[in-house]
Structure formats: structure tokens, C-alpha cells
Amino acid sequence: MLPRHQDPIAAIATAPGRGAVGIVRLSGRSLQPLAQALTGRSLKPRHAHYGPLLAADAGAIDHGLALYFPAPHSYTGEDVLELQAHGGPIVLQLLLARCLEAAAQPGPDGPPLLPHLRLAEPGEFTERAFLNHKLDLAQAEAVADLIDASTEAAARSAARSLSGEFSRHIGELREQMINLRMLVEATLDFPEEEIDFLERADARGRLQRLAAQLDRVLDSARQGALLRDGLRVVLAGQPNAGKSSLLNALAGAELAIVTPIPGTTRDRIGETLQIEGVPVHVTDTAGLREDHAAVDEVERIGISRSWEAIAQADAVLLLHDLTRAENAEYRAADAAIEAQLPAAAHIVHVHNKADAAPAAAQRLAEGPDGTGNGTCDQVILSARTHDGLDRLRRRLLELAGWHAAPEGVCIARERHVQALRRARGHLDEARQRAELGDAALELLAEELRLAHDALGEITGACTPDDLLGVIFGRFCIGK
What is the structure's pLDDT at 139? Predict the structure, then answer.
């Protein structure tokens, strides 16, 4: 444990601003003397005590509740003191300053009560909970994910991860990996034995079953990461293709100005929607056309920003205006836009204004794409009447890989998904080494070790300190 983790810490634990109740939280060793200095009484563990919260002159800063949780039965695993007062920012700042002041004052025996008490860094309370084995790393991350959840499904999934459900799945995988490693090591340590440990213990079958179980956890983790981060979708296309109308239709509100004048949208407009509990971050962009065709410098900047948004998108909805589907110049411009889209992006061709061009919509629906270019990912709709909108929503969920109800899914992060993928890759290598028999036993053992370590990164069993700094540095102060 680093030296800074030995210091007692204090922070305002409630969000900035005014509220009915605000909390100042402290964590460290031997907080009872400081608690008595702040409240004028000895606090009974895990009981709420109402009374004055004292200033240096024994006057009351405020009247509120004091709760004392002695180690190890606390959130951090250390002594924890919580002071609950009225939620005004000045009151809480006075209370926090008083905690720091009282800690530096001499106690009954002479030395300061808590000479090293300092302000907590972001996420330091939860970091201490992790370091003191109250939470594993996946659970600690779920604390922040629960606070930041933008949908009901994400909040429920984060609560499942915080309860340890996701960690249990990882623990089961690691336990099976340990058993396999023991078998391999036994074969390596006793090569003169006639018994083939790997064959007798069905090591190849175990590897196959372990890979299948890991695939199920990986699939669930991808779903959980989607619930946490959402899908980034950009609406792109020529001016007046109906991008802003589609944004308004998806959002169910008039977010973007819609006019028949080309170039009405000059900058990106973003909105986060929910589809089956999945956050979908939709960005409306300026109409795309050649720089020389732009009306002015403002529109040129808007077009440039449109391409920036497209480059960062998980999916691009390329809108086509069905009322101009027969116009060769318009179709050529659409083709030029499509040619410039990133190769890695999921592209859905959205043919809009079906209500105004029913014949063109019918022709398109009867063929692969209505243009003779073969099959493409397309949706025919009308942003004005909302016909076809549900098909687009379903397609977005398919692109996101969402194929199960959110019930039972645990929140996850991209680093969890990447660690599981690495573990899966090492398992594939291990299976290949197992097929080679005794000649590749050492390589098999190494691949199993690497897979085991990759899984350990998820819960913090094998995690470098610099990664911990990145993870907990993104928490709010006081948590």
C-alpha cells in the first residue's frame, strides 16, 4: 500500500450545490477521538446521533447526525465517520474545514488527534475499499457506473455488478483455469509417471468447455459495456435529406430546426435516446456537399465538423431523399459521400420521405436496393409520418449487438471486454498446444497462465498501480 493510503482523509461526499442534506465523510485509523471533538460525545458504533456539530469555540456550526463505523465493518475497511448536516455549500465547507482544524489540535495526551488528515483525492474512499478487500476492482468500478447510469437498465445492471455477480462469473472462470494449470504442472513435474494426467483428466474437453463458458461471459460483457457506453450514431447525407426531421422523430421532440432551405443545420446537434434501455447517442450534422458548393464559411466549417463526427461514430445513418431518387446528379453526389465514409463504420442507408415518393419507395422495397448495385443495409421510412421508424430502431439494436433483454446483464467496461478477448485468444492458443501433446506442455502452461492473468486484471487480482490511478481518478471526490 502506498504511503498516501496510510493518511486519514476527509471530503464532502454529496454533490456540489444546495440540498436538504449534505455529508462530510472521513476515513482513517482511530477516528473516535476526532468524532468526540466534533460532536462533544462518544459515538456508539453504527448508530445515528443527533446533536450539534461543533466549531472550535464549542458553538454549533449546524445541528445534524453523526455516524461512526469502526474498522473493519465500514465501506473503506477503516474507521469511517459521517457528518450529516444541512446541504448548503457554505455549511459543508465550514464543517470540512473544522474537521481539518480539529485533527491538527492537541488531544488529551498532547499530540495532535490526526496530524496527517488531508483532503481526499477523487475516488479515494472506494480505492481504499478495494485495497482493503471490501470490493474487488470490477465492483469498485460498478460504484461509479451506478452513479453515472443514464438509463434504468444501466442502473440495474450496475447494481448487479456491484453485488458481485459479474465478479462471480470471472471467479468461476479463474477457478477452472487454476485446476487446468495444476493438471499441466503436475504432468510437467512428474514426466516419468506412466499415467497421462491430461488424458485422464480430460484436459482437452475441459479447455473446450472453458472456452464456451468464457464466450458466454464475453457476450454478456459486451452487452454490459453497451449499456454503460451506448451506441454513437451519426445522421449524414446531403442537405434536405431529412436528417434533422429524423432526429426529431427519434427523440419525439423538436430538437432541430427543420426548413426546406438547404444548409439550415450548420453545426452538430446531439441527443441521447433510449432504445430497449440502451443509450443511443444520436448526432445530427450539417448537410454534406463539396466545399466549393457551400454557401459560406460557416457552412464549410459545419461540413468539416460533420466529417469529424462521422469518423468517431459506431454507426452512420446515410440518408437519401426518395423524392430525388431519379435525379442522376443527386445520386452521384450520394455515391461520392458514401465513398468517403470510414471503412470500419457500420453504414445503414436510410431512404427517407417514403410518404412523398411512394412509387420510388415501392421500387426500392421490391429489389435488393433498387439501384442495381446489389444488396445493402437499408431502411425505408418517413421521418414525417414515422412509418418505418421502428424498423430503424431494431436495426440500430442489431448493429449494437443487442440481442437479449437487459434483465440479467451486468454492467461492464471496455477494458473488461478487452481482457476477456485476450483470455479467449490465449485459450485458443492453449487448445492448439494441447493437440501437440507432451512436446508442447510448457507452451500450454504459459498460455493458461496468460489467460489466467488476463482474467485477474478484471477483478484486480493482477492489476498495475498506474491502471488503478486511471480508474479511481475518474470518480467524484467523496466517493
Answer: 95
